[in-house]
Amino acid sequence: MRQTIALALIFVGIASLILFTSTDVFTLFARQHTFVNISSAGNDINCVDCHHRIQNELNNSAFHNDLSCEDCHRFTGTGITFASGDNASATPGKEAHAAYTPRCLDCHGGGGTLIDGKFAPPAPAFNESTISDYTAHKKLVLKAKNSNMSVGENEACLVCHTNYSCEISYSYFYNINYKLENWNFNSFSYNGTRYYDVQWAKSGAKHEFLSLSKIKCTKCHKNIYDALVNGTEGGTNEDYLTHSPIEIDTGEGGGKDWDTDNAWNHTRYHYIPSSYRSQWVNNSYCLKCHNVKKYAEEHPSDASTYDLSNVTADTNSTNVHCAEALTCATCHGQNKTKEVIDDDEKGGEGHSVNGSYGGFVDDVASNYARTFNGDICMGCHEAAVHPDGQGQCSRCHEWGYADVYIESEPSGSAKNN
Fold it and tell me: Alpha-carbon Rg of the chain, whole angstroms?
């Protein structure tokens, strides 16, 4: 009998402990017949009694920690009528009773919103009814909008802006092959499928908003980081590094040092010395191309060196929230500030704007999907496929001949026969 009573007490204790620790609403069981007077103006009910975990997240948040629960969850800008006990205007609510789940764009859409004296800025491009194709993350936002995991596009916002953990699966082409003669395509094909999974494990707190410095492009785009930093071993020549011409052979016979000198007469914009690649491939490096406006604001000396005020005008970086989806032609097409120019040390007109093939970069952008554009250019501009002092300059620079096999990120392995 004593054993039975003891087991019963243990069972009740364990059940109570489980109930206490597995729910945030245990306080509801106390004073359940004591009703709160809600007749005064404002909210008389303490949301934190049930949602203390969310309060803790907001206390550790870089943003929104100065907003009340009502500022977001009873936002008046949507036209929703919420429950109210304010004297003669008392109502049980219409579209919602106590609160609603807001879309981030309820405040950050349109031209932005003033909330409790604080301005919530708009998210450019995402605040439009139709998101432009030049907007990076457009697919992510649309997929989030069509999912049922969060309201509206919120899931896409949470992935970057909060401690919400995410898993992303990419699938894209494995490699491309193409042949050029006189800068005309004789053939082009893409082959295979590459699958790449990313897991950005965070605390899972979706009310804990991150400071902008803690949002890392490479956490979701690790395939690109690997392509720029690791790539594929290139033997005696450079490594196979794709996505951007991050480095190229040095001291090719004629004394030209391609990492620090070129026909533009300034340090190469994309260049990173091999010993610094792992540190320098970061948000700032991504912004160099994908948000020139922001990079110029953060690096005024580079803005002057590379004429980034005019380059910014060539891009759509003033119209995007975070990053622009672009092609090489965005900056290097005809009539752009950094259009392709001749290199007097290599001979031949190549595909510069002064030659017969000046429209090559624009033709690639017009006739091939954006996903292929960078790899087409990298088929020649990867360091490892650039002949190393073998007297073959005219093959590309004069005759426009190439027979390229190049793999997509992260491997980037390539051949130019």
Answer: 28
